[in-house]
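Structure (tokenized):
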């Protein structure tokens, strides 16, 4: 008989936005499921939520079909600049919950920015590091650097060229609505630890130097004694509403699905924006919501196993 384990759960997202090309769907699903399996394997053997979200996000950063790590979108100058973050809420011996976080912004030479965000959390007294100095720190932390051009996939370069050919403001706004592929993961482990991680190449057409929500604790990522969250979508709207922090606060009164729906409907839709969020509470209950065309999620629950969904919108569409 299989040994039973305590409650543990994981939800991974692959970005909210357009449904995406049909010919990429099967491989994207495969990539999502592989990311969930890697995280789930860690949770099943009693590993930490932090290790699980890091493993899941790393898998998607390495997959060129997602807008994070290798395969990130290119900025208006044709370069990759990535943001990533992690946060953990860890029960301590004295019964209190220890909160820890780390993030990086505008990273150009690290294949797995989520590992660098984790190193900022674990090896520095800081919360957020940016640019070339953060990359120098990566080397010291034992995270290998690559050449900036090694992160540019053929798919990302083609998309950038196509955009440059027809660039004007109207097109950029339309494309932003279609963007998808940012990745994130949220987990609860059998020890009661909650963790969340997010990683992105940003939004299409972004200026060089633009930093989005995925680097900002409380906006694109959050975890505390009540729950944990990772967001995707229009970063400026997510930052303005501190989306993940607010959604976790709503968990106190609502189920994760309801909290996710309320957060998008009340905080994102009125800004005329699209976003998605995934959540887990301390009971291992999973929730997600978005108001884009589609959001891909993969889940694992100790009592239910692994599943994948290309979720239809379940929150209010952008207003105004
Ligand atoms: N939120 C990301 C950003 O604004 C993009 C996305 O999730 O698609 O950088």
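Design, position by position:
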């Amino acid at each position: 008989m299989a040994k039973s384990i305590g409650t543990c759960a994981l939800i991974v997202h692959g970005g909210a936005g357009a449904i995406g090309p049909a010919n990429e769907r099967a491989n994207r699903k495969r990539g999502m499921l592989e990311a969930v399996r890697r995280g789930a394997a860690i949770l099943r053997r009693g590993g930490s939520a932090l290790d699980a979200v890091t493993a899941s996000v790393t898998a998607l950063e390495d997959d060129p079909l997602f807008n994070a790590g290798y395969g990130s979108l290119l900025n208006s100058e044709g370069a990759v600049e990535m943001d990533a973050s992690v946060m953990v809420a860890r029960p301590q011996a004295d019964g209190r919950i220890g909160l820890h976080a780390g993030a990086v912004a505008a990273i150009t030479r690290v294949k797995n920015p989520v590992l660098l965000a984790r190193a900022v959390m674990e090896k520095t007294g800081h919360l957020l590091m940016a640019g070339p100095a953060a990359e120098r720190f990566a080397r010291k932390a034992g995270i290998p650097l690559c050449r900036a051009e090694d992160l540019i996939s053929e798919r990302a370069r083609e998309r950038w060229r196509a955009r440059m050919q027809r660039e004007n403001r109207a097109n950029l706004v339309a494309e932003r609505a279609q963007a998808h592929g940012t990745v994130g993961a949220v987990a609860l482990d059998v020890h009661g630890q909650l963790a969340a991680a997010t990683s992105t190449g940003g939004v299409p057409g972004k200026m060089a130097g633009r930093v989005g929500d995925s680097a900002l604790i409380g906006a694109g990522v959050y975890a505390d004694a009540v729950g944990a969250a990772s967001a995707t979508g229009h970063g400026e709207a997510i930052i303005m509403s501190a989306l993940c922090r607010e959604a976790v606060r709503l968990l106190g009164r609502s189920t994760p699905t309801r909290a996710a729906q309320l957060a998008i409907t009340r905080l994102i839709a009125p800004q005329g924006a699209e976003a998605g969020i995934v959540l887990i509470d301390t009971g291992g209950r999973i929730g997600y919501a978005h108001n884009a065309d589609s959001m891909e999620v993969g889940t694992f629950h100790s009592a239910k196993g692994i599943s994948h969904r290309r979720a239809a919108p379940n929150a209010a569409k952008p207003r105004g």
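Reviewer-requested clarification: The chain has a mean pLDDT of 93. DSSP finds nine helices and twelve strands in the chain.
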